[in-house]
Amino acid sequence: MQPRNMSMSGVVDLAAVKAAQEAKAKAEQARAEAARQGGGPGAVSPADLVIDVDEAGFERDVLQRSTEVPVVIDFWAEWCEPCKQLSPVLEQLVVEYGGRLLLAKIDVDANQMLMQQFGVQGIPAVFAVVAGQALPLFQGAAGKEQIQQTLDQLVQVAEQRFGLTGLTVDPDAVPGGGAGAQQAAAVPAGPYDALLEAAVQALDAGDFGGAVQAYKNVLSDDPGNSEAKLGLAQAELLQRVQSLDPQRTRQDAAEKPGDAQAQIAAADLDLVGGHVEDAFGRLIDTVRRTAGDERDTVRIRLLELFEVVGADDPRVSAARRALSRALF
């Protein structure tokens, strides 16, 4: 446990932290209620989960959409017999995942440039784009069970590493029985009001270690609890910055623009100081300058900061698009 006399007053507005946490929880409840009542204005139909994409619409329909939902790409052609076997299976599974995935179908005869950019050597070929990053999935026809295992892994990675929870789909129109649909429709366990309140009290007291542990206690039993996820991200951020020397941290970042760790630390300070766009912009610029594991470390920290601010914030949406352009 962190000492209870540790104070971060003046560094971050804890009332704003709590308000952001409550606002996100309300937004999640509103989306769930809209889904129960037939989807609401933001919902999509199952037919919207399978789209045809060409080179002109690739950035809009794939890159931008990949910041909110993993996009599976099916490279196919009319003359390809294995494609005709695979495509219906992909379409069925994507619909069964109830908005956790989007399927983009690309005709290679009409879109040679996209085929070359992805390095497609033969079809059918299936890729995914998650937060602007292209991932090869498999080539050639495959069985439904094998494909579903691959998609399960994709959904898990997209949520855990990128914070993508997918689209809202009209529940009355989704076919039942699919594993993905069951996962999307799962009801969170609970209630956890006492544990969540204890975490907020720890935050207010400056006991960030205690808040981290309280949120982790909730998530160990209910990994999908959105309020605990948001609270944990905020508590971990506050725990990180409490040991930083602000002046030294900003000096290091200014002197070492290519140093990923220096920029990450400065971005943390930017965020707790209320400079959200500065924090996001700093890390997106660092993503452009780095590669390999170092780049991945910066990207993951940026996604953690997205979680702190909240997926519904327009600054997060804009930064996700900028991150996609930096990565792709």
UniProtKB/TrEMBL annotation:
<dbReference type="GO" id="GO:0006950">
    <property type="term" value="P:response to stress"/>
</dbReference>
<dbReference type="Pfam" id="PF14559">
    <property type="entry name" value="TPR_19"/>
</dbReference>
<dbReference type="Pfam" id="PF00085">
    <property type="entry name" value="Thioredoxin"/>
</dbReference>
<dbReference type="Pfam" id="PF14561">
    <property type="entry name" value="TPR_20"/>
</dbReference>
<dbReference type="InterPro" id="IPR011990">
    <property type="entry name" value="TPR-like_helical_dom_sf"/>
</dbReference>
<dbReference type="InterPro" id="IPR017937">
    <property type="entry name" value="Thioredoxin_CS"/>
</dbReference>
<dbReference type="InterPro" id="IPR036249">
    <property type="entry name" value="Thioredoxin-like_sf"/>
</dbReference>
<dbReference type="GO" id="GO:0045454">
    <property type="term" value="P:cell redox homeostasis"/>
</dbReference>
<feature type="domain" description="Thioredoxin">
    <location>
        <begin position="21"/>
        <end position="156"/>
    </location>
</feature>
<protein>
    <submittedName>
        <fullName>Co-chaperone YbbN</fullName>
    </submittedName>
</protein>
<dbReference type="InterPro" id="IPR013766">
    <property type="entry name" value="Thioredoxin_domain"/>
</dbReference>
